[in-house]
Specification:
- The protein has 3 domains: 14-132, Beta-Lactamase; 143-318, Beta-Lactamase (2-Layer Sandwich); 398-553, Heat Shock Protein 90 (2-Layer Sandwich).
- Mean pLDDT is 75; it is low at 1-21, 149-157, 499-503 and 543-554.
- Helix content is 48%, strand content 21%.
- By secondary structure, it is an alpha+beta fold.
- A hairpin with a 2-residue loop joins strand 9 and strand 10.
- The strands form 3 sheets. A 5-stranded antiparallel sheet has the order 2-1-5-4-3, sandwiched between helices. A 5-stranded antiparallel sheet has the order 7-6-10-9-8, with helices on both faces. Strands 11-12-13-15-14 form a 5-stranded mixed sheet, with helices on one face.
- The chain has helices at 21-28, 49-55, 76-87, 134-170, 173-188, 215-221, 229-235, 293-364, 368-396, 399-421, 439-459, 495-498, 505-516, 544-553, and strands at residues 34-39, 44-47, 92-99, 106-117, 123-132, 190-198, 205-211, 241-243, 265-272, 275-285, 425-430, 464-473, 480-488, 520-526, 530-538.
- Helix 5 packs antiparallel against helix 8 and helix 8 packs antiparallel against helix 9.
Length: 554
């Protein structure tokens, strides 16, 4: 309850003779707030600068008039009742919208009213304090809307993530991609959704799934897009793309000519780091509406999870290709072994058998000279058979690896091929003397080197070969790596032709062995200049039994 005294200063009627100088000073200090004093008959007796600003009326035009001139006709009864309650000793607390007279702007004003009493305690005036809360209210509404938006966004993202996780937990491959596209279509309320998987080079799409079309519409579409137009644009973007009317977009020609008529469009690129994996897009939001920011958030979240599905799909395809290649390589190795047995070992054994048979006949006939000659030839071919059998066994599993280690086995291999090919120069440069590694790693490195050296002997027509094997730090991982390089200065070839041909399984076998060990493979060759093969292998620690055996040997 406020008890006030009012002085004569700035007052317009004798009724204010009891006003104090203190309240006048207070009224002057509140220019940003409307301070209005009203008599019991609702006549305005004081109207400060703040009231002039908020309501747009100068004090000279208001003082002495009834305050009811501010009241809308349809609200007059409400305010009359409110003033009666103030003069009855109650407080007033209300917000009202008022149009400023000077500008015509509608402002939201909060009014606080209290009775003013004289020395006897009688209510003689009503003090009204008004504050413009338009900006404050708008700011609060904006904050509330933003808060509601963030809450809705978190709900949308949470829902999208949960849907995607459920899909990835129960689906895989193309089926998972189809379900993710359908989930995006459902969450965003779209008619049609499509998800494309980018080619390894990021240029166009190699896999494409669609949801939302009838079977008849699907059959009428014809060839799938190859990455032109808006689809190609998506693959080259890092941010989502929303288009209100796709038919007016300059790159809409990227869709098949028989694609159903579209209006609204929402597309997101699917990336994993800097790698382009694909794109996910929706068309025709239900109700002929444009896609919203919330739709964009949901589709973007699903796109992020789709990256996992695409990566898994690529890994699965890669594994299938590796397994298929290894099976073909094993079959080729079996054919090669059969060929070597037939044309090598078997021929030596048969020749030895023939000479020994001739020896037996000559011996029976007491032809000592011929018997001795046939015996020598039979023993010679038996010796060749032993050498050939060792070569075949060594080809199946290099015994030299067990006995000599990786460096020693490679030295032996290079020396044997140098003698057979009559190379002028064949060097091995390494820094792993006395070092042993995991058996799988040693076998992989040895086989890749063996294949590269054999290719140089059989196909390169080279006179000089160099093999380099170095142990050093792995810049991509914690630890070390083995780097193998086999270089010849022979005839060379066109790699893009040979690698793509399945009859060159030796090259595929090297690539697959390196990939299965988690390494990298690179081949360079130019016709007339020779060939260089370079492979890196992450180091795997030798098994305990291997390490123990090594210590025992030492």
């Amino acid at each position: 309850m406020v008890v006030m005294e009012i002085s004569n200063e700035n007052c317009q009627t004798p009724a204010l003779s009891a006003c104090s100088a203190g309240i006048i000073a207070a009224l002057r200090a509140t220019a940003g707030v409307a301070v209005i004093i009203v008599a019991r008959d609702s006549t305005v007796v004081s109207w400060n600068a703040g009231a002039e600003i908020i309501y747009g009326f100068p004090s000279a035009a208001v003082i002495g008039k009834k305050l009811s001139f501010l009241w809308p006709a349809n609200e007059a009864a409400y305010y009359e009742g409110a003033f009666r309650r103030v003069f009855a000793g109650e407080s007033l607390n209300v917000s009202e919208r008022r149009q400023t007279a000077s500008t015509g702007d509608t402002r939201l004003v909060h009014i606080f009213g209290e009775p003013v009493r004289d020395d006897k305690g009688d209510v003689v005036y009503a003090l009204l304090i008004g504050r413009d809360i338009t900006e404050e209210t708008e700011t609060r509404e904006q904050l509330n809307a933003l808060s509601a938006h963030e809450y809705s966004r978190s709900v949308v993202l949470g829902t999208a993530s949960q849907v995607a996780l459920d899909i990835l937990a129960s689906r895989q491959g193309v089926e998972a991609l189809r379900h993710i596209a359908d989930a995006a279509r459902t969450l965003a309320g779209a008619r049609y959704a499509a998800l494309g998987v980018a080619r390894p080079d990021g240029n166009g799409l190699m896999e494409f799934v669609t949801v939302g079309l009838t079977s008849e519409e699907e059959s009428e579409i014809g060839p799938r897009p190859t990455g032109r137009g808006v689809l190609g644009l998506l693959l080259n973007r890092t941010e989502p793309l929303r288009i209100e009317d796709i038919s007016k977009h300059a790159v809409s020609s990227g869709f098949p000519p028989n694609h159903p008529v579209m209006k609204s469009f929402l597309g997101v690129p699917i990336r994993r780091g800097d790698q382009i994996l694909g794109s996910l897009y929706l068309t025709d939001k239900i109700g002929s509406l444009a896609f919203s920011e919330a739709d964009e958030d949901a589709v973007q979240a699903l796109g992020a999870h789709a990256a996992v599905a695409i990566h898994n799909l690529q890994m699965l395809s890669r594994q299938k290709a590796l397994v298929s290649g290894l099976i073909m390589a094993q079959e080729e190795e079996r054919r090669a072994v059969a060929y070597d047995l037939h044309d090598g070992l078997t021929q030596f054994v048969m020749a030895s058998h023939a000479h020994l048979e001739t020896f037996r006949k000559a011996y029976d006939q007491a032809n000592t000279e011929k018997a001795k000659r046939e015996m020598d030839m039979g023993l010679r071919y038996l010796k060749e058979a032993v050498i050939e059998s060792r070569r075949l066994v060594n080809g199946l599993r290099s015994l030299a690896l067990d006995d000599l280690g990786l460096a020693g086995a490679l030295e032996q291999q290079i020396q044997e091929d140098k003698n057979r090919a009559e190379w002028d120069d064949a060097d091995l440069i390494h820094n792993i003397a006395g070092r042993r590694f995991d058996k799988a790693l040693e076998t992989a490195v040895y086989r890749v080197a063996q294949e590269a050296i054999t290719n140089a002997r059989k196909h390169a027509n080279a006179t000089r070969v160099r093999v380099v094997l170095l142990l050093g730090p792995d810049p991509q991982r914690m630890g070390n790596q083995l780097t193998l390089e086999v270089r010849d200065w022979g005839s060379g070839f066109a790699p893009e032709q040979k690698v793509g041909e399945y009859n060159h399984l030796g090259l595929h076998g090297m690539i697959e062995r390196v990939s299965l060990m988690g390494g990298t493979y690179d081949l360079e060759s130019r016709i007339g200049e020779g060939t260089r093969i370079r492979a890196t292998f992450p180091i795997m620690e030798p098994r305990t039994s291997d390490a123990s055996a090594k210590q025992g040997d030492e």
